[in-house]
Design goal:
This protein has one domain (29-206): Rossmann fold, CATH 3.40.50.150. Helices cover 36% and strands 16% of the residues. It has 8 helices and 7 strands. The chain has helices at residues 18-26, 33-38, 57-64, 76-90, 96-102, 112-118, 141-154, 160-170; strands at 48-50, 69-73, 105-109, 127-130, 174-180, 193-196, 200-206. A hairpin with a 3-residue loop joins β6 (193-196) and β7 (200-206). The chain starts with 17 loop residues before the first helix and ends in an 8-residue tail after the last strand. It binds S-adenosylmethionine.
Length: 214
């Protein structure tokens, strides 16, 4: 568990902790903005490719809602944190519900571009999800501190515009980009629509209409 300077305590990937458990149980189900952005509804549970996995928090929400999620992460430390978090959650024999959710999450320890260009055999993802490092800090001091520590670990994602172009060429139905509420959109392509909450905005690039069942 790495300690990042004196900015924050240990950074950990924690799918069984209180924050993840609370979000899993009371997060709002398909009514959450992230679910609407991805296009999750009754029988429509898109296969999601998360090309900026980070600590897997968003991917975990999507897996909780029934999506199969492939998590691609390039930072070697973050990869280890994710591996550790997934393995711990899977090993909890007294929490089969959590194990079922985490079994829908597959980690790929690679740079996104290598994954997309080097895998002719991967199934085409229904939706690609991107959450590159925010260009500006968020309001809450607690989140700010955590984000600062994480930023110290992974740095800025300067290639995020290029990643969007790649994603637009690879997804079947949608690309969804998570941004800070007032941050500029990624790249030059304008999203078709967006969903904005208190601190977060989801920009949605709709390539095709999602079917009712997936
Ligand atoms: C803001 S974090 C994502 C947080 C994540 N959505 C969550 O819920 O925990 C961005 C992560 O994307 C990773 N990343 C950025 N660009 C990437 C790329 N081209 N390929 C793979 N990983 C990338 C970074 O290393 C970092 O860990």
């Amino acid at each position: 568990m790495p300690l990042i300077g004196n900015l924050h305590g240990p950074i950990r990937c924690d799918f069984e902790g209180t924050v993840a458990t609370h979000r899993r149980k009371y997060g709002g189900g398909n009514g959450q903005d992230i679910a609407k952005a991805i296009g999750i509804s009754g029988k429509c549970k898109p296969r999601v490719l998360d090309l900026t996995a980070g600590l897997g928090r968003d991917a975990f929400v999507l897996a909780t809602l029934g999506c199969q999620v492939t998590l691609v992460e390039r930072n070697p430390v973050v990869q280890e944190l994710l591996k550790d978090g997934l393995a711990r959650a899977l090993s909890l024999t007294d929490n089969p519900e959590l194990a079922t959710i985490v079994a829908r999450m597959e980690l790929v320890a690679l740079e996104a571009q290598c994954y997309l260009n080097g895998n002719a055999n991967i199934p085409q993802p229904d939706v690609i999800y991107l959450d590159p490092m925010y260009p500006e800090s968020r309001k809450s001091a607690k989140v700010k501190k955590e984000m600062q520590a994480f930023k110290t670990l992974v740095g800025d994602d300067h290639d995020a515009d290029h990643l969007l172009d790649l994603a637009l060429g690879a997804a079947r139905y949608r690309v969804v980009v998570k941004r800070a509420r007032k941050a500029p959109q990624l790249g030059n392509a304008a999203p078709h629509f967006f969903l904005s909450g208190k601190s977060t905005r989801y920009d949605i690039y709709a390539l095709q209409k999602l079917p009712l069942e997936l």
